[in-house]
Amino acid sequence: MDIRTGLPVVGMVGGGQLARMTHQAAIALGQSLRVLAESPDDGAALVVADVRIGTHTDLAALREFAKGCDAVTFDHEHVPNAHIAALAAEGVKIYPGADAILYAQDKQRMRERLSALGAPVPRWRPVASAEDITAFAAELAAADPNAAAGGWPVVAKAVRGGYDGRGVWMLDGPEAAAELAATGTALIVEERVPLRRELAALVARSPFGQVAAYPVVETVQRDGICVQVLAPAPELSEARAVEAQQLAIDLANALGVVGLLAVELFETEAGIVVNELAMRPHNSGHWTIEGARTSQFEQHLRAVLDYPMGETALAAPAVVMANVLGGEPGGMSIDERLHHLFAADPGARVHLYGKQVRPGRKIGHVTVLGDDMTTVRARAARAARWLQEGTE
Amino acid sequence: MDIRTGLPVVGMVGGGQLARMTHQAAIALGQSLRVLAESPDDGAALVVADVRIGTHTDLAALREFAKGCDAVTFDHEHVPNAHIAALAAEGVKIYPGADAILYAQDKQRMRERLSALGAPVPRWRPVASAEDITAFAAELAAADPNAAAGGWPVVAKAVRGGYDGRGVWMLDGPEAAAELAATGTALIVEERVPLRRELAALVARSPFGQVAAYPVVETVQRDGICVQVLAPAPELSEARAVEAQQLAIDLANALGVVGLLAVELFETEAGIVVNELAMRPHNSGHWTIEGARTSQFEQHLRAVLDYPMGETALAAPAVVMANVLGGEPGGMSIDERLHHLFAADPGARVHLYGKQVRPGRKIGHVTVLGDDMTTVRARAARAARWLQEGTE
């Protein structure tokens, strides 16, 4: 409780753009987000009044950070699970809890749990060697008469630490499998799902157990990085949308998630399967800042503070979020690009994360709202290109 | 220019809720607002990373504050005009400039200038004594056969420093006039306009000269304080709306305003007349945070930085902002009230200003969007009551 305002204090571990945007939501609720940042130059540290500098792997720093917080939550999933459990045991309200966030930290545990729950997942296997990978591929080939020779390619994933396409490898044969296995990385392998597209279902759950579900979105990927999010997912049947939302709700309940849960899905001809879980504000939900009645950032705060959840309805028939990646050095400055974008599209909503521009790095996003998805999508792509390259 | 981000630094003099909400807009634009606050407990100082403590009447403090700012602007209109002129002479980009903000600081100069420009204003007069006031009332009586005895009541306004109903007096006769005149306050008097309702026209103007106009709103007043803003103003004819917008655009150009200009208007049977001018984000524009494509706070930043202006279109057919005033001490805490409101109306958008609750003080506002003005208005009123009194 902040005695100056009579309102709660939420601490967020990690000082990236998610904390930065959560602070905007906190301000509206009368709060001031407390942030544990690695550096005073982190995106959130540049804009937040209550910044503590420290590392998320340092239990003493986390303990100190948590003092006086009504709830502690995360900008990322890299806080050691044992630290989260230790803080909870000491009475800190830390969400999502260790028993839940485990499934966003460890892909093997996630696959095991989802399989046990009967949730739709790709065929998968934990593997300890190149031989295990090759054997898995052979099983795929045996099970599917249409499979390529030997069942290749298969998808290998690091059990821990991957994101934004990192920690995921498409293995095209035994040689690639041997090379990866030689790194000693703990791995699982999965069938390559014949996906039509990727979807995401975002829900928020409070300690009380209320769950609010956002409209299901399509996430458009390029080189393993999400480049656009389309809300609502175009031409998604009502039945499939409800199925995806219900799956996310069921998982939030079964895993005991408190806060946001983003369920990344593959849509195939046959149905949906779960790709990944994230338990924090998620790139697939940035569109909610303007595109939904309650942003995912406010929703996450409401959830971890056990406030009733906010309305999730769309604010316009078509909403598109496009990520802005850093371009090559040289050329126009980001400020010049912003001038041009504002002139070109006065309705584009810009979010910049306070990061130094580096090629391929997510430095911001743009959201466009409108009536027609095709038009809105083209505008969002154009706006992101303006900020990214300064050319059209 | 912030070398960490390559984006500009705006300094705002004053640490109240307008600076607090401007910071939210600055974050989206990749910026971090610099704030000159009187106290570290000011609403904006609680949430802003770059806070300087100082007083707006201290030229040395203003000069120090302006160093490194790409533009300096205001949360209120109380910075001495000579200080603004001095800083501008030293090369500070300070907006609105001294020659413009004068008309938001000095009601007599404002009335003189508007009269000279041919803008519609009430009949008015600068007065130096009770006799002057009585003579003005007598003139009103002589001009209007329907006027009450002696032309009373008349409206007296302090030339400087009034806001939110303070600095405005309804004088019902010579005795009240004498009492007020005895205080030595510099005054103008005006006819009491037979108003049907109050409107506000909000525009933003950049140094380049681009002007963007928001939809005209109705401002609902109680005891001299704005309690609700209805966007768009219900049942306002297209012709009257265009007239009000054009008037605001013409005034912004004629006065050389840079940043926001709010023109508070009386609507009468005969037309519109200008009540007051404000040159900063304004209570009548808080609805734009969710209700317009570009919030007034972002628009103000874009204007003072000479970015192209953002789209001003409504985000929903009906938008209502209701101010939340502090209630009597005792009863439910603000946090408990928030729980109840969120349960009662998951779609209400809440903005709390980080202020200690005091009876009658504006501590926040609530915005509701929807399709039907009557429904939306009732929801907004109910939401504000929940936060204000904790009862329905």
From TrEMBL, chains A, B:
Its Gene Ontology cellular component terms are: cytosol
Keyword Ligase (UniProt): yes
* Binding-site residues, ATP: 107, 157, 190-193, 198, 275-276
The answer, when asked if ATP-binding is one of the entry's keywords, is: yes
Q: What is annotated about its quaternary structure and interactions?
A: Homodimer.
- Chain ranges of the ATP-grasp domain: 111-305
Q: Which Pfam families match?
A: ATP-grasp, PurK_C, RS_preATP-grasp-like
The species is: Actinoplanes nipponensis
According to UniProt, the reaction catalysed is:
5-amino-1-(5-phospho-beta-D-ribosyl)imidazole + hydrogencarbonate + ATP = 5-carboxyamino-1-(5-phospho-D-ribosyl)imidazole + ADP + phosphate + 2 H(+)
Report the InterPro entries cross-referenced here: ATP-grasp, ATP-grasp_carboxylate-amine, ATP_grasp_subdomain_1, PreATP-grasp_dom_sf, PurK, PurK_C, PurT/PurK_preATP-grasp, Rudment_hybrid_motif
Q: What is this protein called?
A: N5-carboxyaminoimidazole ribonucleotide synthase
Q: Which pathway is recorded for this entry?
A: Purine metabolism; IMP biosynthesis via de novo pathway; 5-amino-1-(5-phospho-D-ribosyl)imidazole-4-carboxylate from 5-amino-1-(5-phospho-D-ribosyl)imidazole (N5-CAIR route): step 1/2
Q: What is its EC number?
A: 6.3.4.18
HAMAP family given for it?
Answer: PurK
User: What job does this protein perform?
Assistant: Catalyzes the ATP-dependent conversion of 5-aminoimidazole ribonucleotide (AIR) and HCO(3)(-) to N5-carboxyaminoimidazole ribonucleotide (N5-CAIR). Catalyzes the ATP-dependent conversion of 5-aminoimidazole ribonucleotide (AIR) and HCO(3)- to N5-carboxyaminoimidazole ribonucleotide (N5-CAIR).
Enzyme class of the recorded protein, top EC level: ligase
Which family does this protein fall into? Belongs to the PurK/PurT family.
Task: Give the record's keywords alphabetically.
Answer: ATP-binding, Ligase, Nucleotide-binding, Purine biosynthesis
Which Gene Ontology MF annotations are present?
5-(carboxyamino)imidazole ribonucleotide synthase activity; ATP binding; metal ion binding; phosphoribosylaminoimidazole carboxylase activity
In the UniProt record, the gene name given for this protein reads purK
The record's listing under Gene3D superfamilies reads: 3.40.50.20, ATP-grasp fold, A domain, ATP-grasp fold, B domain
